């Protein structure tokens, strides 16, 4: 990437792991909560990293950033999670420069989502960029790239039907409940936690069932009350968790904790209980499966539910990819101009030095020297010359590298690389 004058010594990398190769347990090991993200960013600053984006969702954890070697970014991830380098290497992907750029486009456009066309990740990338910018860890290249990805994402949403139909993990949860549970309107449903997928599942349940027995519990009761007010749900104290679990027919867990919040010791009832664990890391201990009356379904199981909607979405992939290529070409065009921008800038300064020296000579020679007219003519000539060189360097028919070297040699230019 240094040839584009983005970074003098570093390359642009995308490193991470996703649902494609890493199961829920491994993804949990590399999950970053807000405190861990902040610690990672602080460490990156201490290590002199010049630009960084960090995302961690239920489906993936990724770092986009500049480094001399990807291990620098991998180490940041492992230092701030439970994951190890050995674990990472078994399931990870590492993309460099153009491949890393292409990966961000694919991820941000919903083509790499566990549910095809799920655009939730783009808001995660935006949030990540805001944090990085706040900590001065977002250089011009990364910001420009993200804006291009956002543009592609918007166009794909509006110009294709890849996100049409109610297909998401939360919808898949409700679909599973409908397919599995009889007489759902009479069942007691408990939502434990206010994670985004849990909230969306709750909203879908309210929309698609006439159930009036939905209860919400959260460690922070005020958050639960805010959501309950929106959906007209009953709120119970965290202290009542065990009692409410034992009243329930369906338990939806979306607590977003780093360790299990529900285990078999909380379940005393013998009646059938369906538990949906919508958390990464898993928030329901697998020991609940030793209970004969319990059925445990995890996020990954729900994501495998495919239907007609997903099949229809696949038909729109070629158009989405064409949009990505179009926006990516614009971005690469900007990168090409970055390649020769320092040389053009140095050339302009050199020509201005020539003009300044010549103007000084003419001032001494000419008694009625027209300062304003001379300045105007020299500035216009400098602009025309630099524009001419810029157009030449943009021409696909010429070797940009050879032309740059020739210009530097002829005008004895010293150029600076800019991030």
Tell me the CATH topology of the largest domain.
Beta Polymerase, domain 2
CATH superfamily of the largest domain: Glutamyl-tRNA reductase, N-terminal domain
The low-confidence runs, each spanning 5 or more residues with pLDDT under 50, are 1-5
Distance between the termini: 11 Å
Strand count, sense and closure of the main sheet?
6 strands, parallel
Shape: elongated
- In CATH's first tier, which class of the largest domain applies? Alpha Beta
- CATH architecture of the largest domain, by name, is 2-Layer Sandwich
- Binned, the helix content reads 40-55%
**Domain module tally:** 2
Instruction: Give the C-alpha Rg.
Output: 29 Å
The structural class is alpha/beta
Q: Record the strand order, biggest sheet.
A: 7-6-5-8-9-10
Average pLDDT value? 85
Number of E strands: 10
**SSE sequence, one letter per element:** EHHEEHHEHHHHEHEHEHEEEHHHHH
Counted by DSSP, the helix tally is 16
β-strand percent reads 5-15%
GO biological process, one term: protoporphyrinogen IX biosynthetic process from glutamate
Catalytic activity: (S)-4-amino-5-oxopentanoate + tRNA(Glu) + NADP(+) = L-glutamyl-tRNA(Glu) + NADPH + H(+)
Protein name: Glutamyl-tRNA reductase
Pathway: Porphyrin-containing compound metabolism; protoporphyrin-IX biosynthesis; 5-aminolevulinate from L-glutamyl-tRNA(Glu): step 1/2
Describe it for me?
The chain is an alpha/beta fold. The chain has 2 domains: 2-159, 2-Layer Sandwich (Beta Polymerase, domain 2), CATH 3.30.460; 169-305, NAD(P)-binding Rossmann-like Domain (Rossmann fold). The chain has helices at residues 24-29, 34-46, 71-79, 85-91, 98-108, 120-134, 140-159, 169-180, 196-208, 221-231, 241-247, 299-303, 308-314, 317-365, 371-394, 400-411, and strands at residues 11-18, 52-56, 60-67, 93-96, 189-192, 214-217, 234-235, 250-253, 273-277, 294-298. A 6-stranded parallel sheet has the order 7-6-5-8-9-10, sandwiched between helices. A 4-stranded antiparallel sheet has the order 2-3-1-4, with helices on both faces. Helix 10 links the parallel strand 6 (214-217) and strand 7. Helix 7 crosses helix 14 (317-365). The termini are close together. The model is unreliable at 1-5 (pLDDT under 50). Belongs to the glutamyl-tRNA reductase family.
